[in-house]
């Protein structure tokens, strides 16, 4: 019998002791065979392969004995109440047998425990995490690992124990101030990871915030289940509200995943007969309630309709950010003449229109005008009922293209508090905060923002 076969037999005897929490048997085996705690199982026999199959070729390759404390991959569907003590005994044996391999054992064991739904269901996840952390496991991205499988308590505990707080973790744990801070310096890759993680877990407010921070609803995350879009994963979460947020932000209803080649609707239909998925499927069949709109360059005949859309935007979206007096003064005096005069001065308006109750209605507008030299100004307003339909984003893109065509080097906006996150998501950065004055003379808080445009030499 060669050494590898002997090790397989040792594992075959030790793993059941882990499963029932037989600490004394494990101690005896480590006394007789100290290598059991420090060597990897290179060639598992049928006793293991028949139970976990493909896991031995993917995330559970050449396992150490310590990794079995996580019960991930699932073999029995349970862990003993004293599994933390079992883990401690294995760690101590590994430290004695070969301390050089201990860090690798600890770090991946922590990840497996963070993933493990069996550990959570058996109420041993936190205790296991603490044993591994106390032994020196690197906390790394462990909070994100826990959140991938919806282990919010474990993720929060890991952050408390010192795990890095990522943008994704801050959003899913509803640490909004931290999320706002982290979003300012987050890379596009980090935002996409956060978007997909929030989608997987059906975290509605987290989705809204990461989309406002600039995550692309139609890009996959290279770091998390890259075979499908955020909308696919939101469907899988069973949260209709999460699906709505993504659809209203412009998620592609016809996107197909790279494995099953299914659309989000087809993913929902795979769980036909289950209430949340039937509701999601019905919503997606209706096109997600998305407004079918058209855009064009405005002319003076559109002025009164632009004014109506402007007033609606202020009165429907403004009250969440400003007191009633400011909102009333802001909307007062917005008549068609204002926009005709602006057009005559050279300001260019783009409008989005749609059939609403049989009437062609202006849903929103964006404008571009020259401030000074290559500095341009811009404004974007959308009716409240048409918000989160990518109307504002589409209109801004048209106004920006107009500015670029005229040689603009930068665009400046005096963003209302309601529009700051929208402009930030479109590449604007904050210059300062202050006030501007309404036609009534009343001051209104705003944020001065700028976007530098790419120039060609």
Helical segment count: 22
Overall pLDDT confidence: 93
Unreliable spans = 1-5
DSSP strand content:
5-15%
What pattern of helices and strands is seen along the backbone?
A: HHHHHHHHHHHHHHHHHEHHHEEEHEHEE
Task: Determine the N-to-C terminus distance.
Answer: 73 Å
Task: Output the structural class.
Answer: alpha+beta
Q: What is the helix fraction of residues, given as a range?
A: 40-55%
User: How many separate structural domains?
Assistant: 3
- Strand order across the largest sheet: 1-2-3-4-5-7-6
Largest sheet: 7 strands, mixed
Number of strands: 7
Shape: elongated
Please tell me how large the radius of gyration is. Answer: 29 Å
Task: Indicate the topology.
Elements: H1 3-20, H2 23-32, H3 46-52, H4 83-97, H5 102-115, H6 117-121, H7 125-134, H8 142-148, H9 152-160, H10 167-172, H11 176-185, H12 188-200, H13 204-212, H14 230-237, H15 240-248, H16 264-269, H17 275-285, E1 294-297, H18 303-317, H19 324-331, H20 336-344, E2 348-356, E3 359-372, E4 375-382, H21 391-405, E5 410-416, H22 420-425, E6 429-437, E7 443-452
Parallel strand pairs: 4-5
Antiparallel strand pairs: 1-2, 2-3, 3-4, 5-7, 6-7
Based on the model shown, name its key terms.
disordered N terminus, 3 domains, 48% helix, Serine Threonine Protein Phosphatase 5, Tetratricopeptide repeat, 457 residues, 22 helices, Aminopeptidase, 7-stranded mixed β-sheet, single chain, 7 strands, 13% strand, alpha+beta
């Amino acid at each position: 019998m060669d050494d590898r076969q002997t090790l397989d037999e040792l594992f075959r005897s030790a793993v059941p002791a882990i499963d029932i929490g037989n600490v004394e048997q494990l101690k005896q085996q480590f006394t007789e065979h100290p290598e059991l705690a420090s060597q990897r199982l290179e060639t598992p026999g049928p006793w293991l392969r028949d139970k976990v199959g493909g896991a031995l070729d993917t995330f559970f390759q050449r396992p150490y004995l310590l990794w079995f404390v996580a019960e991930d991959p699932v073999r029995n569907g349970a862990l003993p109440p004293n599994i933390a003590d079992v883990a401690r005994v294995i760690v101590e044996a590994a430290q004695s047998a070969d301390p050089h391999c201990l860090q690798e054992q600890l770090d991946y064991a922590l990840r497996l425990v963070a993933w493990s739904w069996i550990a959570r269901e058996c109420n041993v996840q936190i205790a296991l995490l603490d044993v591994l952390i106390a032994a020196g496991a690197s906390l790394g991205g462990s909070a994100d690992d826990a959140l991938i499988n919806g282990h919010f308590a474990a993720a929060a505990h890991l952050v408390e124990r010192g795990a890095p707080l990522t943008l994704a973790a801050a959003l899913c744990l509803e640490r909004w101030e931290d999320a706002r801070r982290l979003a300012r310096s987050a890379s596009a890759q980090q935002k996409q990871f956060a978007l997909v993680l929030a989608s997987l877990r059906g975290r509605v407010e987290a989705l809204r915030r990461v989309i406002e921070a600039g995550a692309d609803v139609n890009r996959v995350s290279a770091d998390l289940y890259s075979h499908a879009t955020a909308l696919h994963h939101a469907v899988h979460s069973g949260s209709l509200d999460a699906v709505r947020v993504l659809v209203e932000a412009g998620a592609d209803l016809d996107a197909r995943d790279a494995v099953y080649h299914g659309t989000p609707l087809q993913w929902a239909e795979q769980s036909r007969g289950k209430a949340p998925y039937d509701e999601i499927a019905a919503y997606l069949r209706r096109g997600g309630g998305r407004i079918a709109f058209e855009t064009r360059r405005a002319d003076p005949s559109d002025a009164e309709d632009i004014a109506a859309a402007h007033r609606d935007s202020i009165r429907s979206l403004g009250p969440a950010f400003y007191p009633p007096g400011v909102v009333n003064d802001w909307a007062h005096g917005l008549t068609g003449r204002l926009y005709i005069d602006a057009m005559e001065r050279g300001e260019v308006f783009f409008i989005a229109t749609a059939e609403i109750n049989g009437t062609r209605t202006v849903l929103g507008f964006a404008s571009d005008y020259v401030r000074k030299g290559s500095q341009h100004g811009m404004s974007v307003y959308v009716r409240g009922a048409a918000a989160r339909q990518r109307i504002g984003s589409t209109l801004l893109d048209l106004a920006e293209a107009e500015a670029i065509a005229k040689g603009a080097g930068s665009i400046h906006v005096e963003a209302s508090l309601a529009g700051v996150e929208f402009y930030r998501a479109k590449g604007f950065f904050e210059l300062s905060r202050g006030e501007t004055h309404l036609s009534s003379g009343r001051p209104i808080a705003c944020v001065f923002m700028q976007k530098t445009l790419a120039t060609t030499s």
